[in-house]
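Reopening this one. Same input as before:
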Amino acid sequence: MGSESPLKLPQIDFSKADLQPGTASWDCVRVQVMEALGKYGCFEAFYDIPLQLRKAIFDSLEQLFDLPLQTKMRNSSKKPYHGYVGQYPQVPLFESMGIDGANIMEKTKSLTEVLWPEGNPSFCNSVQPFAQRVAELDIMVRRMVLECLGLEKYFEEHEGSTNYLLRVMKYKGPQTSDAKLGLNAHTDKNIVTILYQNQVDGLEVLTKDGEWIGVKPSEGSFIVMVGDSFHAWTNGRVYSAFHRVMMTGNEARYSAGLFSIPKAGYTIRAPEELVDDQHPQLYKPFDHVAFLGYYYTPAGQQDQFALKTYCGVPE
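Same output, byte for byte:
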């Protein structure tokens, strides 16, 4: 399954009351964030979200995935990977749904009405506040990275260039002690992903040394991961790690991932300040949605290094 190595992802505490830009706490956490994202491309974050809301999000996920398949398939979208995904022979344990703009109550209500025409206010009242709180963590992480790179002047543009997708996932227990594939090894294609899971493990991350680490987050913590788009925007200063899900046992694994995603039409290009003789440009400017158009072709799905193939600068 995963590595037997005692290596663990860095743990970073975002729950301090005085964690505000310009404070000593902020500066300390900022250094930890940059070191973790440069070395591993991810870290475990301790972040203060009320226990009641944490519990409610998993109650909502169970409600969602208990719906009939025909109902779940109403969660459709023209955007790749934004609607219902499941029933794939190659990953039979995996099922997923997307809530586009989940941090905005009107958009969460819109999907709720599609899935529950009779209404389900408890679903809206757990999903939207959860997504909003996690989006605040996403903004902190991205701001810290830009500050570390001396690129604060780009922050407003950078923040305004993204939307949020809450991707909720269920992995069935394979009913065996042998490890079974829940989700293939891949890098995320977006800016930043923040994952929250129940206490059924399975996530594994590939280190730069080629070693798979089994991630065992503490109860209530989050996993923050860099996507290919942020890796490209920073000209490689932060690392986009391969990860996968391997399942054992009988229990289902539920997780919710908030993805910050570049808006259609926004061109991702590394700022000129990050390109020099020691750091040559790694990727040509690209549109994220156009890149996904390649990634979700048969050739793109088989290409582990799709970003480099699509817009990498020849060495």
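So the earlier flakiness isn't reproducible anymore. For the record, The first strand starts at residue 11 and ends at 13.
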